[in-house]
Design a protein that fits this description.
- With about 350 residues, the chain is mainly α.
- The chain is built from 10 helices and 5 strands; from the N terminus they run βαααββαααααααββ.
- The chain is flat and about 55 Å long.
- Keywords: Membrane, Transmembrane, Transmembrane helix.
- It comes from Fistulifera solaris.
- This is Transmembrane protein.
Length: about 350
């Protein structure tokens, strides 16, 4: 007779979450493909040959991302546990993220006038601007979830320490997008030949996105491969990143010399990076000071074991520990009614 654990239910929840993420990635890619076709007035297959190379590249990349996402969605639907969290899903998610990351600069490049246009990259096609970003975000969510499952994180239990892994991953993606967007604008404004305030702020955005994203990626790899928590280091790192991005959003979005005064890729993801950094600081500070005392999901037994303490149980506690227990025998599940542990075996009801 053994106790029944909920590990299988939690693993099923992880599979369902991954399947939902694959579905969202597929849906966003499909909408992006339709938006791209409408943006260039593509009426038939014969019009593809007449399109410029950059338009062909955008359409081909979105189509590949759609195919990979659809394959992941169907595989997660039919293979389930045999697919979720294994090497195939990790590789598939990584390729999907890579394709989106490679094509996004072409989509948001104002020179292509597909989704954005103008000096500051104002949005001219909302669907083609929004849904590729949503497709990239959904692919990143799938990748992070598959890596967490592959490295056996958050499958058997709800681990608060590794829940910030998703936020670190989102911050890395957002920082890299800021770096790429600022780089394109830096080149378009011919800042190599000019020394202006706007060019200096663009240069700050480039370095901030590159260094911040790199440091966040290093921390993610540390958390993934060596899950020993260094709460103070994480707190200091997240506060430093938030401080840098506080100056970043001020330089990038405020004043007359701001390189992103209107709603654009650089504007949106600069603020996204700032709020993600604030979220990382809040999580790190909470874990740093909240881990000193037990919470509702950190039992008194675990807290005492962690601090090498002993707990004296009263007779009332012993009686409470026998209430509502569920055990499994060869014939099925038997419930133990409210009683003491000592005579629980005499009062089991099937």
């Amino acid at each position: 007779m053994v106790y029944y654990h909920s590990t299988r239910n939690e693993l099923s929840s992880e599979v369902d979450s991954q399947h939902t993420s694959w579905f969202m990635a597929t849906a966003f890619a499909l909408i992006a493909l339709v938006a791209a076709a409408k943006a260039v007035h593509l009426d038939g297959l014969s019009d593809i040959k007449n399109q410029p190379k950059n338009i062909k590249w955008i359409g081909s990349a979105i189509l590949c991302a759609l195919g990979l996402s659809l394959f992941g969605f169907l595989t997660a639907l039919f293979l389930r546990h045999h697919f979720t969290g294994n090497m195939l899903e990790c590789v598939l998610a990584f390729l999907t993220v890579g394709i989106w990351a490679a094509v996004m600069p072409a989509i948001v490049n104002p020179k292509n006038t597909v989704a954005t246009a103008g000096e500051f990259g104002q949005i001219v096609n909302a669907n083609l601007f929004l849904f590729p970003w949503l497709g990239l975000i959904a692919a990143v969510v799938v990748l992070v979830g598959s890596l967490r499952t592959f490295f056996d994180r958050d499958v058997a239990r709800n681990d608060k320490n590794s829940s910030s892994f998703v936020h670190w991953g989102a911050f890395v993606a957002s920082s890299l997008i800021v770096m790429m967007s600022a780089s394109h604008q830096f080149e378009d404004m011919l800042c190599d030949d000019e020394d202006t305030t706007m060019c200096a702020r663009l240069q700050y955005a480039i370095w901030l996105g590159a260094i911040g994203g790199f440091l966040a990626f290093l921390w993610m790899m540390w958390d993934l491969c060596l899950p020993t928590r260094l709460g103070l280091v994480e707190t200091v790192l997240s506060i430093a990143i938030l401080t840098a991005w506080g100056f970043g959003v001020a330089f990038i979005t405020f004043s007359n010399h701001a390189p992103a005064p209107t709603f654009s890729t650089l504007y949106f993801f600069s603020w996204a990076s700032f709020f993600l950094a604030a979220r990382l600081v809040a999580s790190a500070v909470y874990r740093l000071f909240g881990a000193a005392k037990p919470s509702h999901d950190y039992s008194e037994d675990d807290y005492a074991k962690h601090n090498e303490q002993e707990i004296d149980y009263s007779e009332e506690d012993n009686e409470e520990s026998g209430r509502g227990a569920v055990v499994v025998d060869d014939e099925g599940i038997a419930a133990v009614p409210p009683t003491s542990v000592a005579n629980a075996h005499d009062q089991m009801y099937k």
